[in-house]
Amino acid sequence: MSIEEALAAIEQVLERGRLSKVEGIVVRQCWEGRSYLEIAQAFGYDAGYIKDTGYRLWKCLSEACGEKVTKQNFKGVLKRFIQHQAASALEHQHSTAASASPRRDLPFAIAHNLPVRDFSELIGRDRELAQLLEILSFDRPMHCISIEGIGGMGKTTLALAAAYHSLQLPQPSAMPKTELLQTQPAFDAIIFTSAKQERLTPQGVLPRLRSERNLQDVFRAIARTLNRSDLLLMDFENQLQHIQDSLSRQSTLLIIDNLETLADWDLILAFLYDLPATVKVVITSRQQSSFAAIRLEPLAASESLDLIQQQARQRGLPQFSGCANPAPLHEWCSGGHCLRDRAIGGWLSGQPSRFAINAGSR
Question: Which among 104, 138, 147, 345 could disulfide-bond with 204, CB atoms 3.0 to 4.6 Å apart, if both were Cys?
Fold first, then answer.
């Protein structure tokens, strides 16, 4: 068992995401057999602080594992945990294979990690959605499609609309009335990853607390969506092999949102090129790629104003329909300006002055 496997096991046991910087230092150094005093001196921390951090960490692990965990025995505890997880995963695979049967009539069984949809209707993108759904059909040979455009054009919204359409959720009001949308891509799993750092809310633009920033984060999202937590305990080479094997046994839609902001987008592109034919990939990006692309153009004037009204209604602001002069917002929305979300967020959160200042300063 390597230190990386141990760290992954601890994060899985605690079920609270990544360890803090200091916790990671404590685990790594205790793994090497160093004392708390040596750790504190080597990294410039107070010895008492390091000792307290270790005490709290071992206590949390003890509660999660159901046995006492200490600085001296945590290696053995984690090794037993990894062995148990591997055995459970093998048993799960055998039981799944034995009971496998067609389930196309059970759309609710699709495994996915899609975020809550924050739009009730896709405005002005019926043609692009129909085109995207057609490409996602396994009757089409395209493996990867890129949705491209400047910031604020609705790239993520379009990708999510296609994903939710594929789920066959009983929400017809959210689907465009287009004959071409009879196309129904069939997926066993839909996996969404996003490198976006912010999101638009009724309170304005807020930071996203979790985002996929590199290939390892993408692997983590895949493993959790497919209920393969055992993959989190493997080294990179084994993770890659098992992920490819798992994806080859089912049809999967993988969405990589904001590709250009990922730390190692070149590695992610290499990963995408090596995926099996059972996977369809949708990426969104402000930059052009070598993949087949759907290029989003600015909305028409009427559609951009419809978008503003939709945002207002969803945030409980029907009085916005009587706004005397929404034209400035329309100019930003129809032009797809990268600050469109900030503009709408400021207006809808009751801070139109902030929008005016931001707009005027550009």
Answer: 345
How confident is the model over 275-301, as pLDDT tens digits? Answer: 999 999 999 998 888 788 899 887 776
Residue 179 has a pLDDT of 44
| Lookup: tokens for 226 | 């497919």
In sequence order, what are the beta bridge partners of 55?
Answer: none
Asked whether residue 102 is domain-assigned, the answer is no
Looking at residue 34, what is its pLDDT?
93
Q: What is the pLDDT of residues 219-237, one digit of tens each?
A: 999 999 998 888 888 888 9
Task: Read off the CATH number of the domain in which 40 is found.
Answer: 1.10.10
Q: Which residues contact 162 (CB under 8 A, 6 or more apart)?
A: 129, 132, 133, 136, 185, 282
CA distance 343 to 137: 36
Distance CA 207, CA 261 (A): 15
Predicted pLDDT of residue 347: 54
Tally of domains in the chain: 3
Q: Do 90 and 75 fall within a single domain?
A: yes
Is the separation of the CB atoms in 253 and 110 below 8 Å? no
Q: Which helix (H) or strand (E) holds 295?
A: strand 292-295
Asked if residue 66 is part of any domain, the answer here is yes
Q: How far is CA 222 from CA 16, 155, 217, 284, 329, in A?
A: 17, 21, 9, 18, 38
**Is 20 within a domain?**
yes
Do 255 and 283 reside in the same domain of the chain? Answer: yes
Q: Which two tokens stand for residue 333?
A: 């929305």
Average pLDDT, integer, range 56-83: 84
Instruction: List the beta strands (DSSP E) in 48-162.
Output: 111-112, 144-148
Q: Extract the tokens encoding 315.
A: 């945030």
